[in-house]
Amino acid sequence: MRRARGYQDLDDNAADSGISMAQMPPPQEIEMASVSVVPDDTFTVTQAVNALGFGWFQVKLSLCTGLCWMADSMEMTILSILSPALHCEWNISKYQQALTTTVVFLGMMLSSTFWGNISDRYGRKTALSMCGVLLFYYGLLSAIAPNFLWLLFLRGLVGFAIGCVPQSVTLYAEFLPTKQRAKCVVLLDCFWALGACLEVALALVVMPTLGVHWLLALSTIPLLIFALICPWLPESARYHVASGQPDKALATLEKIAQDNGRPMLLGRLVCDDSVGIGQRGRLKHLLIPHLRNTSLLLWIIWMSCAFCYYGLVLMTTELFETDSDGSEESCAADCRPLQTTDYMDLLWTTLAEFPGIFATIFIIEKCGRKRTMASQFVIFAICVCVLIYNTNRTFLTCVLFLARGIIAGLFQAAYVYTPEVYPTALRATAVGACSGVARLGAMITPYVAQVLLKNSIVIATAVYSMAALLAALACLALPIETKGREMRETVTNTT
């Protein structure tokens, strides 16, 4: 109606001034000076997000989402510090050390699809708000656990809450323009690397004086901050449209336009969603004919990625321990707390994630998602094989530095590809399912990195190398390359 009135005024002015319509500039050109126009009078969320571009709205969302990732990273990094500390304090065995890690990933695996369903049915913001509160609560309770069994139980609940964290990537990716999406999602891993470095630095200060229980308590501070800012998180406009709430989606898009200083598109917001409102968030739809091969291959990739990443994190402290002791023999009665040199070397290898992230940003837009992930898996396999030639500590640190950078960038490349390849109605469920399968690999890895490694470093590294090479083949076999591709709204369109 506003457009019609504008055209009528234009006609009246032309008549009053004696100017013919042929001499007048086209009305659409006049409108373009103040608003964006879609020719067919309708637009989708994807068109709106691309037209409104990257601006202050996305910067604020990056900080909120990044805080969630930083908190998650601290809870994951503490696992490599917690095991040796409990070995000394409670005299637990190697199998029990591995169990403290496995129980966290078990909780994550069991909850990932649950959180994916919550996100698709009730919204990304709702799921993340629940996650923030539960994660802080159970993390704080872990710090006062009176014995090993209570600690296992509470860390399992921490893992259950962490299973929702990947949904922050879903929310973030749905607000990113197509051209900036890969770069921004990969850069989000900077917050993960920052959290890992912060946890190691915190352990370096806290562990020698206050001990592991204070470390667990202080590590929950970012979780508390995230829980407090969750009410200000925006809900996904794609979710609102897919769930039949276009008015709320339009209000969110207008907020983006206001924050970014861009004109709002005119026309009617529409959604082409063939999945249907009643079928959102169903795990079985990931295995329909159009998506079956993609889903199965991604599950292999995610499981291998988590298996290799967390395996390398756990192997780092184990290899440093072995190198310092000069022996691979250990028993429950032996206690060697991590020293300052161990924490410093752990910090150096963690810092490797930053160059790995920036290298991935450069490569992923040049070579595409599939070839980037495949090449990174191959390089990681080579690095792990080299670990058997552990001649000195400097050589060990350099190889771990390279391997950590590669696998960190690889994990983030998987986070770029997965939301891009699935439609809106299944996106959160798909990310949750991939995350759940990944935790299966993470559950297994402590028994390789902390138990098998003590018996044979050759067999342990061979297992990681084979897993990486298998995943590289899976990457090349993926049927869809998503480089330069808009996020899909429908499940039937696979091109």
UniProtKB/TrEMBL annotation:
Membrane topology (UniProt): Multi-pass membrane protein
Transmembrane segments: 95-115, 127-146, 152-173, 185-206, 212-233, 296-315, 346-364, 371-389, 395-417, 429-449, 455-478
InterPro entries documented for this protein: MFS (IPR011701), MFS_dom (IPR020846), MFS_trans_sf (IPR036259)
Residue stretches making up the Major facilitator superfamily (MFS) profile domain: 61-483
Molecular function GO labels: transmembrane transporter activity
Gene Ontology CC: membrane
Keywords in alphabetical order: Membrane, Transmembrane, Transmembrane helix, Transport
Source organism, top-level taxon: Eukaryota
Name of encoding gene: LOC106124157
Protein name as catalogued: Synaptic vesicle 2-related protein
Organism of derivation: Papilio xuthus
Source lineage: Eukaryota, Metazoa, Ecdysozoa, Arthropoda, Hexapoda
Subcellular location, record wording: Membrane
